[in-house]
Amino acid sequence: MKILLASLCVISLLVILPSVFAASSSSEDFDFFYFVQQWPGSYCDTQKKCCFPTSGKPAADFGIHGLWPNYKDGTYPSNCDDTKPFDKSTISDLITSMKRSWPTLACPSGSGDAFWEHEWEKHGTCSESVIDQHEYFQTALNLKQKTDLLGALTKAGINPDGNSYSLESIRDSIKESIGFTPWIECNRDESGNSQLYQVYLCVDRSGSGLIECPVFPHGKCGAEIEFPSF
Ligand code: 5GP
Ligand code: 5GP
Which positions, given as ranges, span the membrane (predicted)? Predict the structure, then answer.
């Protein structure tokens, strides 16, 4: 009997232990990405102001903010691997596109390196189970190409002209043209008006396609929001 019990114990340990380790090693895994784009006009017209990148004023278009691994419960991992610092040499073939599609607007003016480094270290390192550094930036650039937010809005008569538009019409026009429901984040201009700041779309774990968001971020815009020029 003792031998039987002892062997049962050993067997159950053999079964349980690997699953415990598997659980802990996947603790930095994630369920989906938010692909976040920012409207430069709304970054720049706040009290904080902005600075154009050293390469000059970006196009009047949405720019990439980041590709953020997230959990379905709304929480997210960050700064997952400090042994994999940002290494510009691994993405030298992407820099021209990054300057165009992922411009920095923070002050003081920079080339973009600091922004990209921050995004890689805070968010990118949490997607390493699926994509490496080059793939991380390439994936974001591909997504930007596939999601023409400004085109979706202007097709619906929603233009960056300083006028106000209903949040619903903004959401609907993006859903209509991109095929998935976006999350709209607002911020405030210098006079305190609520305005269209960032658009969130959800992307599957592999980074290959858009999905409906498993969970939306929090925050409120108001029913009518401004779309400032840039
Ligand atoms: P803020 O507090 O300005 O909205 O966000 C600050 C930063 O927190 C964002 O730029 C981003 O790095 C991170 N962040 C905010 N919300 C989320 C989220 O829902 N998911 C992830 N992955 N990061 C977030
Ligand atoms: P997150 O909000 O992703 O945590 O981090 C944003 C960080 O990147 C902030 O520290 C911010 O100062 C810096 N940053 C540099 N350029 C930009 C930009 O164009 N837009 C935003 N939102 N943050 C930028």
Answer: none
